[in-house]
Design brief:
The protein is built from 8 helices and no strands. It has about 190 residues and is mainly α. The protein has one domain.
């Protein structure tokens, strides 16, 4: 996508917002690789037996994006930020629908050697991270957005700065601060 003419994605986003549905059809091939990278990044943290696959996550995000035509798209980075947020919401909703709850909830605990099963708590972890991120957003909205874009969205410091309209130095500072806060919060929840 980065090899496409500068501004092509932004032009298509603006045309789509103005009601040109054909613009969306031309946009998707340009951003598909980036959407796949985002989805793959999210799915790396999921257990191997997770029933939601990368392609399904992309498709679900695409369906939700189709309904987001009235968003005032700023540029490619803004589109990716919204896509990253949608994918995170989809995974959290999926985990909640599968019966995962914070700190185990009403799930019956069975003792076994968890070291032999990779990422067995991922659904609960997704919810715990989401809860911690929501708590951070209540205290530091921009810091939470930096985490979402960097960690969940896989955006670079420069791309994150572009989306948020701040300097790269600000992103670096808020990234470090937010990570430290989240680690403390997760440890307090019995998480990380």
């Amino acid at each position: 996508m980065r090899g496409d003419p500068p501004g092509q994605v932004t032009e298509l986003l603006h045309a789509w917002r103005e009601g040109d549905q054909g613009a969306l059809d031309r946009l998707i091939p340009l951003v598909h690789a980036e959407l796949h990278r985002l989805a793959h990044h999210y799915m790396l943290g999921e257990r191997a037996s997770h029933t939601l696959q990368t392609t399904a996550l992309i498709n679900e995000a695409y369906l939700r994006l189709v309904n987001a035509s009235q968003v005032t798209w700023a540029n490619r980075a803004h589109f990716l930020a919204v896509s990253a947020n949608l994918m995170r919401r989809i995974l959290v909703d999926f985990a909640r629908s599968r019966g995962y709850q914070k700190r185990g909830g009403d799930v019956v605990r069975v003792e076994f050697d968890e070291g032999r099963i990779p990422s067995s708590r991922t659904g609960a972890d997704v919810i715990a991270v989401d809860d911690a991120l929501e708590a951070l957003a209540a205290l530091d909205e921009r810091g939470a957005k930096v985490v979402e874009l960097r960690f969940f969205g896989g955006l670079s410091e420069d791309e994150t700065a572009e989306v948020l309209g701040v300097s790269t130095r600000t992103v670096k500072r808020e990234w470090a601060s937010a990570k430290a806060w989240l680690l403390r919060e997760m440890k307090g929840q019995g998480g990380a």
